[in-house]
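Encode chain A's predicted structure.
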Amino acid sequence: MIEITNKIYYVGVNDRNKNLFEGLWPLPNGVSYNSYLIDDEKVCLIDTVEVDFFVPYLKNIQEVIGERPIDYLVINHMEPDHSGSIALIKKYYPEIQIIGNKKTFQMMEGFYGIGEGTLEVKNGDSIELGKHTLNFVLTPMVHWPETMVTLDTSCNVLFSGDAFGCFGALNGGIIDSEINCDTFWLEMVRYYSNIVGKYGTPVQNALKKLAGIKLDYICATHGPVWHEYISKVVDMYDKMSRYETEPGLVICYGTMYGNTERAAEVIARAASQAGLKNIVMYNVSKTHHSYIIRDVFRYKGLIVGAPTYNTGLYHEMDVLLSELAGKDIKNHLLGWFGSFGWASKAVAEIQKWNDERLHFEAVGTPVEIKQSLTPETFAQCEALGKAMAEALLIENC
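Encoded structure for chain A:
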């Protein structure tokens, strides 16, 4: 097994088979379930892994400690991809004490029927393992109510749970200094925006609790162990949780016969000609919404368009707007357009989403296209793209 530092070992596993994380988010590069073992006078396991991987997980643990018992299991987060092996760990190590907070144990009873052999900790509590001292910091709603992080104060190591994690399996190397991290940065944004994004205020509260603490390693439950890039990943979380964006534009559209798509192309060209460089376009029926949500978190501007369908809004656009509303995204600019063959509804429905749920700042004049683009609606699309570009560029000055 890989020693991270001072008898702290990585004992996690990779999942290269799952297609959708939480049954929702694509995993083109897989995902890791990270667990850590501290080999001291008292042996302490930090989080577990999804239960399907218990056999290789147990082998990883035994490779470090042989037949020695495990004294403590710290559970920072109760989602089953991290807590799923608790019951089996207890069978192999029946004397183990499980460390968590009050809400941890309420969930553990519900998920696994385990209510004994526990040690409850509160914010700021510590335990001694020998040479290692663990301090517990409660971080509720990042992104479940029981979440906490564990700080090894003797080694300046933070076991951060899902915080600072990202999608992507680990391909041999574990610590960021050993691997090329280029593929992980956008996957960190996608992970944050899809899973944690709604909880910006709790993330900010957690960052404040950790401010000023010297960290040499951040050991998250997904993705690499951060060492060289600690300042970068903390800065990314800080910016994302404050909904800070770049001056770019996401244009996403639904289309049945190509007319709405042609309008989106006109809008994009006009925004580009107005001087905006960061523009991404997505067909909501082709691109998984996970990637669209990621880029909405990256860029301040959003223009959406879709046809009327069954006297309502085109289904995939309706779903996307619902997903965006559920993230409580702030500080964005929104423009919109729509098309119809015989009954106008899409433009009004998009405006209703913004008025009632999204609450983004409206930019430009919405464009409504009957059947296909005319010289008049073509010019209106150009005006919408130009208005958005100018609004984004002015904010960046």
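The first strand starts at residue 2 and ends at 5.
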